[in-house]
Design brief:
The chain has about 200 residues and is mostly helical. It is about 60% helix and about 10% strand.
Amino acid sequence: MMESTLQEKINAFIEHLDQEMDFVMITDRMDESLIILKEYLGWNMTDIVYLNYNVSPKPKVTLSEETKARILKYQVIDAQIFDHFNKTFELHLDRVGREKVASQVKEFEEMRESFENKCLNKNKTVSNPNASIKWEITEYGKNINVACTFLQNKPSLLTEVITQLQLSQDYTIPIKGQETEPFLMRDIVSKIQRDYDNNEDLV
């Protein structure tokens, strides 16, 4: 039996990923990805809101063609996976509707910026060992809207909390934030949804 070539193995792996995952989000197109996910799952805008809490102060680097070619040469598997799911992402855009997604992205950006400005004081930073910009959370974020505090937790903690909720389906589990007393996910959801329904600054 002939051994599979590298390209055949890559093709088989990509096919496996396609079968395992219905939709792959693209980091470089996060807001579009979130809108598509929202449409597929029947969520509201408030279900996908996030905070730009740790922001890198470094400007975006533009790679030379030589560097790009070198990356493609030595990261051939990653490059092909990325290229494949970029193409399937375009199919998801067509399925949901490009104009619909573009319109909702604009609405979502305005809503998220309003929420972020209420949660974070962008005129005051706090020390951060990761060398990224970390804004101070406002009094509103600390004392009025618990969602602000929840969303500024480390991704590892958020992942753990979300996993627990998915497994238990129990929104009354006490959640311990980094700098807060334990709170209930149910309170966060009800607070965000109540403000959204009443159209109080959207969030």
